[in-house]
Amino acid sequence: MPFIGNTPDVNFTSFAKQDLTGVTGSPAKRGYTLTHAVANANEIEVFVNNVRQEPTDAYTVNGTGLTMTGDVETTDDFYIIYLGKAIQTTVPPDGSVSTAKIASSAVDLTSKVTGVLPVANSQTNTPAFLAKMSGDQTLTDEAENKVQFDTEVFDTDGKYDHATNYRFTPTVAGTYFIFAQAHGKSNANGQLADLRIIIKKNGTSLYSTRHNPATNYANQIALNIQIMDIANTTDYYEVFLFINDTNTGTAPTIEHDENGVASWFGAYKLIGV
């Protein structure tokens, strides 16, 4: 006869047995406690000296309570076979248990799981990097100057070029959070008339932030920018700064340190986007 469904790897079934000791005395001492609750007297077989007793006549049950209608001596061989409590051990076949069969309360990561968990679906926030400047950078006035972030704070996958092109080439397709700040400075007080920070993708302007005071020119201006962008395996990103310094005598600069790190460039891959 064919088997319907998954064939169990191992399937052992046996009927549970419980040995009892009789108590000679008054009818008040004819009660016994079962190790397994049963619904009615027909779910167990009661034997006294290997003679099966008649259900509901020789005994009655109520949950885990067994009551014998007659005395059972301490010397009698008194035992029970549970017909309704078959003990079965089954090893399900590989891949046969679906998530629908697992109770949500059975998975408790807070109290049951210890150690470092693996990242789900191999998703990480890398490649990621953060770079700053080791010194001030002199700029060409009224021109877009590539900012030379030449010192890496960290670079998880070596995707930022801090020595030659000063660009981030993630090489891993995905959506990235990209951020930068540049601290522009005129070399004469109150001469900065215009300043723009630009993130370029593959050499083309992508996003920018601008400060143009028109009058009451500033001496120093710090601009920052944060964006998200989708990159393929060959895209690259760079930061440029445009300064209009009305002081024509000396070129403007980007400050690397103004009471702390003043200019930086970084990015990281977003998860689930």
Brief account:
The protein has about 270 residues and is mainly β. It is built from one helix and 19 strands.
Explain what this protein looks like in three dimensions.
The protein is mainly β. The protein has 2 domains: 10-91, no CATH class; 128-269, Jelly Rolls, CATH 2.60.120.40. 1% of the residues lie in helices and 47% in strands. Strands 7, 8, 10, 13, 16, 18 and 19 form a 7-stranded antiparallel beta sheet that branches. A 4-stranded antiparallel beta sheet has the order 1-6-3-4, with no helix packed on it. It has a 4-stranded antiparallel beta sheet with strand order 9-17-14-15, with no helix packed on it. 23% of the residues are buried. The model has no long low-confidence stretch (mean pLDDT 86).
Work out the strand percent: over 45%
Which consecutive residue ranges, at least 5 long each, have pLDDT under 50? none
Rg, nearest Å? 40 Å
CATH architect. name of the largest domain: Sandwich
Order of helices and strands: EEEEEEHEEEEEEEEEEEEE
User: What's the helix count?
Assistant: 1
CATH C-level of the largest domain: Mainly Beta
Inertia-based shape? rod-shaped
Structural class: mainly beta
Extended strand count: 19
Distance between the termini: 53 Å
Overall pLDDT level: 86
Index terms:
seven-stranded antiparallel sheet, 273 residues, Jelly Rolls, rod-shaped, 2 domains, four-stranded antiparallel sheet, mainly beta
How are the secondary structure elements laid out?
Elements: E1 10-20, E2 31-38, E3 44-48, E4 51-52, E5 59-68, E6 78-91, H1 109-112, E7 128-132, E8 137-138, E9 144-146, E10 151-155, E11 160-161, E12 167-168, E13 174-185, E14 192-201, E15 204-211, E16 220-231, E17 237-245, E18 253-255, E19 264-269
Antiparallel strand pairs: 1-6, 2-5, 3-4, 3-6, 7-10, 7-19, 8-18, 9-17, 11-12, 13-16, 13-18, 13-19, 14-15, 14-17
